[in-house]
Each structure stands twice: as C-alpha cells, then as structure tokens.
Amino acid sequence: MTQQHPELEQEQAYILHAYECLEASRVGAMKIRELTSSGPGGTFQARLERNVFDENLVHRLEQLELGNAALVFGRIDRTADTGDEVESFHIGRLAVSDANREPVVVDWRAPVAEPFYRATGREQMGLLRRRHFVVEGPQLLALEDELFGEGHLGVGHDEGLGGEDPRQGLRGYST
Asked: Which end of the chain is more exposed for a tag (fewer CB within 10 A), N or C?
C-alpha cells in the first residue's frame, strides 16, 4: 500500500475551490448574456456592439467548458520578488479567479507558469518546488513534488527530484 502525500487533502480542497470558481464564472457569463440578449431594439451601432459582445461571451463560455479535461494539473512554489516570501501558483488549462478577482488558477500559457515547464536543476528559474497532479476532472488521484534549491539539487544532479525515472510518469501512472 502506498503512503498518501501529506498535502493531498489540502490540494484536493483547493482544486474543488477552483472548480467552484470556474462554475461561478460560467454562471456570471450566462447571466450577462441573458441581460444583453433581451430585445432586438436600438440603433444599428447598438445592435452591432451587442452582437460583438455576445460573440465574446459565447467564446468565453466555450473556454469555460472543460468537459472531462482537468482544470488544474500542477503547482509551482517560488521565491517572491521581495525575496522574503514564497508564492504559489496553481497551473491549469485556463485562468480562473475568485469573486475578489484574485487568481486561483494561472493559465499554462501565462509568463508566470513558464518555470513549470522549463526549470531544471541547472536553471531553476526561481523555483523551490514543482508539483505535478494526477487528476480525473475535479478528483485528485496523486501528486508528486520536485524540489529545487540548495540541499535539494546539486548543479547537474537529480538527487532532489521526487519519484522514480521521470520518463515513467508519476508513480504507477503511465504517461
């Protein structure tokens, strides 16, 4: 029997929160669409603007529909620009914010997510930890950490990487 990661439940709760924020965004976009589609009246310019706005809302609603794809697939912890604190970013398929417009999930294409893909033992890009998730929809099945920094990785060595051969995927899960 494999031992459960000590932060698995905490990360599961965070992922569920991210899905709740995603649903709130979807509901908000639907409400705005309903408000803007009420009535064909107005000037030509007003109708044109409403149609463009509606097309943008439809596009956003399509983005918010993930199907069975995972919303969040990893997390990075890095030293903040001030150098005193550690900041964490959950990386996923699209950006999701909470009701206060605070980021909950960072889009994988955002510049802040770049170290998730590019950091190495030699070029750590400010990372302290890279966490990979194995998820099915909102269900977190497993997670694995790669630790960076002094005491974890020597230059050009892999002693600090969690797990077995990284080409084999997360323990027991095929890539």
From this structure: N
3-state secondary structure of 141: strand
Instruction: With CA atoms as reference, report the closest residue to 19 among 107, 110, 96.
Output: 96
Domain range for 154: 1-175
pLDDT tens for 48-75 read 777 777 777 777 777 767 777 889 999 9
Quote the pTM value: 0.75
Considering its fold, how many domains does the chain have in total?
1
Rounded to 10°, the helix 8-36/44-64 angle is 160
Let me know if 128 is exposed, middle or buried by CB neighbors in 10 A (0-12, 13-18, 19+). middle
- Identify the pLDDT of residue 104: 96
Cβ contact 21:102 at 8 Å: no
Strand 96-97 to strand 72-79: parallel, antiparallel, or no bridges (unpaired)?
unpaired
Other CB atoms within 10 A of residue 91 CB? 25
Counted residue by residue, the chain has a size of: 175
DSSP 31-97: HHHHHHTS-S-S-HHHHHHHHHHHHHHHHHHHHH--TTS-SEEEEEEEE-TTSSSEEEEEEESS-EE
The residue with greater pLDDT, 60 or 11, is 11
Specify the 3-state DSSP secondary structure of 18: helix
